[in-house]
Write a structure and sequence with these properties.
The structure is a single chain. It is built from 15 helices and 18 strands. By secondary structure, the protein is α/β, with parallel strands linked by helices. It folds into two domains: 223 residues, Glycogen Phosphorylase B (Rossmann fold); 179 residues, Glycogen Phosphorylase B (Rossmann fold). Strand 6 and strand 7 form a beta hairpin. The longest helix is centred in the first third of the chain and has 18 residues. The chain is globular, with a radius of gyration of 22 Å. The two termini are 16 Å apart.
């Protein structure tokens, strides 16, 4: 394993991002943090972007940086490109074996044709990490990190497919030099599955984070009184309908209270939420902002609100039990107290830090918690101060530097 990364080092990252209307979406994949952290610290940095299923494009490409300067993109060779007809046919926002094969081949293809030996390879999913492990066996990579953003013991309903998913996770966690988890709940889940701690790679904590410039809050005078923000996708597992159903009880106590829904989702989910708003006659109290194209815009919206709500539903085997909750971290980065359900581990962390309240996924409990905070100015101000304090050092630089240091790798 390498001991340091410096201007003589070569680093390769394989990750993904959604593409819409010819543009990269900011959600998922950590593309911008990877580029910002590594491109200026090592001599040669390459990032393989594997477009997420359902995107405008299906063939991976690689962005190359030398000494912090962007050198351009490299297309995948014919070895990967010949999959285009199959990928186009299977291009929906669901996990697909064709896309997994594409991802594995894209990593092998670039590393073998590049001519360089990489000191570090970070695979953002198991299939990418496994490609890195193969490349290590071939002498093209020295150190492999398996970076995990989502994990669940029952990720898929089909038993054979879920078993394959767990097999790939176990192989990657076993043969990589280290596993970076965005949540401390992931190693615990692996233990319950029978993974032997002594036989798998070190399980390290690499939480989601923000750029330093993004962590800021507004003066209280600029925050809209009695305003609630739900920031995230509109899928039912995230509970946006619970946020809507809270409003009648909150409005009885605070008639000027408002709820903003900021985030995209599939048309069916969005239509159902809009119908619910009309059914409850909440059109004048709820602002449906829809998809927010950039992180900066989303953060600015959150900062203008009094309370954030993270009403994840307690669905058995949901990845939300084990994953990091970015909407909660977003709230803290904006100095906004959060009310969350008991599902995400980050909710309990926010409560421990005094910046959040955790309740069951119940409309009454969520509404009661929000009403209590709105009713107690001293409590609200204490939670706001705690949120600001909690987010102060939650930066990508700290997350990646600490994870590398835990592996014994210094950054020069």
């Amino acid at each position: 394993m390498i001991k340091a990364l410096d201007k003589n080092s070569n680093v390769l990252v394989a990750t993904f991002s959604p593409w819409k209307d010819g543009k990269r979406s900011p959600t998922n994949g950590m593309v911008a943090p990877f580029i910002d952290f590594f491109s200026n610290r090592v001599g040669y940095f390459a990032l393989i972007d594997q477009p997420h299923p359902g995107s405008d494009r299906v063939i991976p490409f690689t962005e190359v940086y030398k000494n912090g300067k962007f050198q351009g993109t490299k297309k995948s060779s014919l070895i990967v490109s010949w999959l285009h007809p199959l990928l186009s046919f299977r291009n929906s926002s669901h996990t697909s074996m064709a896309f997994k094969l594409r991802d594995f081949l894209s990593v092998i293809d670039f590393a073998m044709s590049n001519g360089k030996k990489f000191d570090l390879l970070i695979g953002f999913e198991s299939i990418d990490a496994l490609a890195g492990i193969v490349l290590k066996k071939l002498g093209r990579v020295r150190t492999v990190v398996y970076y995990v953003s989502d994990f669940s013991p029952r990720r898929y309903q089909q038993k054979w497919f879920n078993n394959l998913y767990l097999f790939l996770d176990k192989m990657a966690a076993t043969y990589a030099d280290a596993t970076w988890n965005v949540s401390p709940a992931m190693p615990e889940a692996r233990k319950k599955l029978g993974y032997k701690t002594g036989k798998i790679s070190p399980q390290l904590y690499a939480p989601n984070a923000f750029f330093r410039r993004e962590i800021k809050f507004l003066d209280l005078a600029k925050v809209k009184p009695f305003s609630i923000i739900y920031a995230g996708t509109m899928g039912s597992e995230n509970g946006p309908d619970l946020a809507i159903q809270c409003m009648p009880a909150i409005l009885k106590k605070f008639p000027k209270a408002t709820l903003t829904l900021a985030g995209g989702g599939i048309k069916k989910d969005v239509d159902n939420l809009q119908k619910l708003i009309k059914k409850l006659k909440l059109e004048h109290s709820i602002n449906f902002r829809g998809f927010i194209p950039t992180n900066d815009e989303m953060l600015d919206i959150v900062r203008h609100h009094s309370i954030s709500i993270a009403p994840y539903r307690a669905i058995p085997n949901s990845v939300r039990w084990y994953a990091d909750a970015v909407k909660i971290r977003t709230s803290l980065a904006c100095g906004v107290p959060v009310v969350a359900t008991h599902v995400p581990p980050m909710g309990r962390e926010a409560e421990r830090l005094g910046a959040g309240v955790v309740v069951k996924d119940s409309v009454k409990q969520l509404a009661d918690a929000i009403i209590k905070i709105f009713s107690d100015e001293k409590l609200y101000l204490q939670m706001r101060i705690s949120a600001i304090k909690a987010a102060k050092n939650n930066t990508w630089d700290n997350s990646y530097t600490n994870a590398l240091k835990s592996m014994g790798i210094s950054i020069k």
